[in-house]
From TrEMBL:
This is ABC transporter ATP-binding protein. Gene3D superfamilies: P-loop containing nucleotide triphosphate hydrolases (3.40.50.300). CDD domains: ABC_NikE_OppD_transporters. One of its GO terms (molecular function) is ATP binding. Its main location: membrane. The keyword Transit peptide does not apply. It is a peripheral membrane protein. Belongs to the ABC transporter superfamily. It is found in: Cell membrane. SMART domains: AAA. Keywords: ATP-binding, Cell membrane, Membrane, Nucleotide-binding, Transport. The lineage of its organism: Bacteria, Bacillati, Actinomycetota, Actinomycetes, Jatrophihabitantales. Residues 5-255 form the ABC transporter domain.
Length: 336
């Protein structure tokens, strides 16, 4: 299948007055048309920075220092802002974590949803407003005609997130970057939003980069999973095989630390001890070794090589045995 998103050996530096941090250090991944890749890991692992790079929205001091990012075959690294703006909205849409801060509180809903069409010259004002109403209906917002003239603060959190999705998809982009799209929502609304993503993706044959810290979210709503730790990919595999046959010890630790249907009431949950490494300093060994219960001498001396077969790859000196996983995507997703 043709890849809509191709990331090759991507490295990103963020410079400040005191130091230079490398939150993304040589990652490669791709997403085919109509597929969803879950990018998962703890806070600070570099997953959101990766998403911002795909959008050409790195923060001040941020710069791609190596590698490429191709969307539908076009390398967007190094594009001028005007050129990047042509890609955003038209070829790639984005849904951020908190719709209340992502939406303009002084602008009516209809104007915000229609704006991408006007910016990209895809419709005139009246047509854009009609298309905005149609898209609000498509994402399941009740009484869409009435919502056009309301402000974000007049809507619930779930309704605001539907407005964000409508805005991201109004130009029918090839790729959607969803950065923690359900974190600010209650559990019931989370499920509704994730089901909506799946329906829209199927209808539009759209690729999705789903960024999350929640293994339960990726279990039920992705085709492949990339586990990220300290700026590097720890493991990359189709969703089912990752949960059933995880190999990297960090993946194992993440799965062990979340409840499943078999978890008993009152049972103490497992945790990952310690903190991620300081990414402003050179790292020449396994980045997870200081927190890993299976680490040996070579883990503290050598950077593990990237190995595996087919679509399942990992970088670990002492991986879990194949078929050693007790979790399944179904059990994790149902418990979340």
């Amino acid at each position: 299948m043709t890849a809509v998103l191709e990331i090759s050996d991507l490295a990103i530096d963020i410079r400040s007055r005191r130091s230079t941090v490398r939150p993304v250090d040589g990652i490669s991944l791709d997403i085919a048309a109509g597929r969803t890749l879950g990018l998962v890991g703890e806070s600070g692992c570099g997953k959101s920075t990766t998403g911002l790079a795909v959008l050409g929205l790195l923060p001040s001091g941020g710069q791609v220092v190596a590698g490429s990012i191709k969307i539908a075959g076009q390398d967007i690294v190094g594009l001028k802002e005007a050129e990047a703006r042509e890609v955003r909205g038209r070829s790639v849409g984005v849904v951020f974590q908190d719709p209340m801060t992502a939406l303009n509180p002084t602008q009516r809903i209809g104007a915000q949803v229609a704006e991408p069409l006007l910016i990209h010259g895809m419709a005139k004002r009246q047509t854009a407003r009609r298309r905005a109403e149609e898209m609000l209906a498509r994402v399941g917002l009740p009484r869409p005609a009435q919502q056009l003239d309301r402000y974000p603060h007049e809507l619930s959190g779930g309704m605001r997130q539907r407005v964000m999705i409508a805005t991201a998809l109004i130009c029918e982009p090839k790729l959607l970057v969803a950065d923690e799209p359900t974190t600010a929502l209650d559990v019931t609304t989370q499920d509704q939003i994730l089901r909506l993503f799946s329906e829209l993706q199927r209808d539009m044959n759209m690729s999705v980069l789903l960024i999350t810290h929640d293994m339960g979210v990726v279990a039920g709503h992705t085709d492949e999973v990339a586990v990220m730790y300290a700026g590097r990919l720890a493991e990359l595999a189709p969703t089912g095989p990752l949960f059933a046959n995880y190999r990297h010890r960090y993946t194992e630790a993440l799965l062990t630390s979340i409840p499943t249907l078999e978890t008993r009431r009152g049972e103490r949950l497992a945790t990952i001890q310690g903190l991620p490494p300081n990414l402003s300093k050179p790292l020449r060994a396994c980045r997870f070794a200081p927190r890993c219960g299976f680490a040996e001498a070579d883990c503290f001396a050598l950077d593990p090589s990237w190995r595996g077969t087919g679509r399942h790859h990992f970088g670990c000196h002492h991986p879990a045995k194949p078929a050693g996983g007790t979790a399944t995507a179904a059990s994790i997703g149902a418990a979340s």
